[in-house]
Write a structure and sequence with these properties.
The protein has about 80 residues and is an all-beta fold. It contains no helices and 5 strands. The chain is about 0% helix and about 55% strand.
Length: about 80
């Protein structure tokens, strides 16, 4: 199954690994599963680097054989 990406969504960074390689995002919808994010999918921003724990974010929702994930994650606002 090829990866498919589409709709924009929003959520909050729930957890970020101490090494900074991986994060989990909690979507803003009731009952939606947390999403895995690799640091290569976190968009760096000019003042403040990549989103961290507790930051509100927007992202592109994707799905592949491994399940749902987020791409192009950036702070909202």
């Amino acid at each position: 199954m090829a990866e498919t990406c589409g709709r924009s969504a929003s959520g909050t960074v729930l957890w970020r690994a101490p090494c900074g390689e991986f994060s989990l995002i909690t979507p803003d919808g009731e009952g939606e599963a947390d999403l895995f994010v690799h640091r290569s999918d976190m968009a760096a921003q000019p003042l403040g680097g990549t989103p961290g724990e507790g930051d509100a974010v927007v992202y592109e929702l994707c799905a592949d054989v491994g399940g749902p994930s987020a791409r192009n994650v950036r702070r909202s606002g």
